[in-house]
Amino acid sequence: MSKEHDRLKRITVKDNVLQVAGRSAGQLVTMAGGTPCYIYDRKFLTKRVETLRSMMPSELKLHYAIKANPMPAVVQHMAALVDGLDVASQKELMVAIGSGIDPEAISFAGPAKRVEELKSAVAANIVINVESCLELERLYELSEELGIKPRVAFRVNPDFELKSSGMKMAGGPKQFGIDAELMPEVLAGLDTGKVDFYGFHIFSGSQNLKPEALIDAHDKTFELAERLCELAPVPVRHVNIGGGLGIPYFPGEQSLDVAVVAEHLKELMLARTGCFKNSEIVMELGRYLVGEAGYYFCQITDKKESRGQTFLMTDGGLHHHLSNSGNFGQVIRKNYPVLIANRVDSEEKEQVEIVGPLCTPLDIVGAKLDLPIAEVGDLVVVFQSGAYGATASPQGFLSHPYVRELLV
Ligand SMILES: *Cc1c(COP(=O)(O)O)cnc(C)c1O
């Protein structure tokens, strides 16, 4: 096992073969109908939510942001564990409704929502996170047209950002939400006869492994929320404080110390005053809940040398797992944890480049990895693959088969 992937010590290995959810890698791949495939571990998902809840304040509501992994079986499993689902499109809304969760526990955030999407959301009675003044106007119109009072919350573009985040989603000019400084005017003009006001959504960033950065963002989020609550025309039912909890992907990264973040959140929730005191606090998470429960498997189809470098060629790659290839927001490519699933360890190792079947040098599964000597037919596994995998990848590119997905 490569030394930098220390955290892989938690994996189960039997006769040198990776085991997931009590089955061998080979058995899982066969169950899925072959490679390439994603395997998601149901028990891991359950445990992740339970562990997180045991640390977080008991009154905190947990939502699952389904864009991280919208596979219907996964969403259905998550729906039974969390307090709500967050969707970002009408198609995701259909998956969320299909899970059987109470529509009031579904919220819809996303820039540039189409009128048809808004209509569908109003008809479904879910909470819509309004991201622009025109969107609010459209909801007023839909309120009359459909004879249903839309449930609305405002997504606010905060006047701060979550520092050292994987992706900047707030602070400064952004396409997401309504700028915090415009909110007093928006709230003053809000027509509560036409829409049902629920609260605020303040999302400041994603993929963060630094407790101090999350704590800082929570301080600022609560401070902003308190100000907004004072301005609200009716009591604020909930404030969605975003998520941002990250998972370790790259060599040297450590799991986030959630306990510290949770402790601080507990204090912030208790210290609330005024109208803010009685509103529900919601945390929405995608990656943190599902990312570590997923495995991407592909098979070695060829092995060759090129000018002193050994290449393991596989049937899977960037078209199924864009983020692993390094082309989904990374500046410098680093390896996700990768192993040969049916030869986890051996005395003898060789340095390999693992690449996929696409006609582009960007199609990298793993670069400069020291792995046991692999053969054609062996299985390559990429860990930390439960979030932003299949649906965050250009599956149509080069017209290879779509990836299989199995929840076990
Ligand atoms: C993407 C997104 C999330 C989930 O982010 P993760 O990093 O996967 O936890 C949550 N809320 C909003 C508004 C998002 O756009």
TrEMBL record:
Modified-residue entries (N6-(pyridoxal phosphate)lysine), positions: K67
Cofactor: pyridoxal 5'-phosphate
SUPFAM superfamilies, alphabetized: Alanine racemase C-terminal domain-like, PLP-binding barrel
GO biological process: lysine biosynthetic process via diaminopimelate; polyamine biosynthetic process
Residues covered by the Orn/DAP/Arg decarboxylase 2 C-terminal domain: 37-386
Active site (catalytic residues): C359
Domain of life: Bacteria
Keywords: Pyridoxal phosphate
GO molecular function (one): diaminopimelate decarboxylase activity
Protein's UniProt keywords contain Nuclease: no
Domain Orn/DAP/Arg decarboxylase 2 N-terminal: 46-290
Gene3D superfamilies the UniProt entry points to: Alanine racemase, Lyase, Ornithine Decarboxylase, Chain A, domain 1
UniProt similarity note: Belongs to the Orn/Lys/Arg decarboxylase class-II family.
Protein name: Diaminopimelate decarboxylase
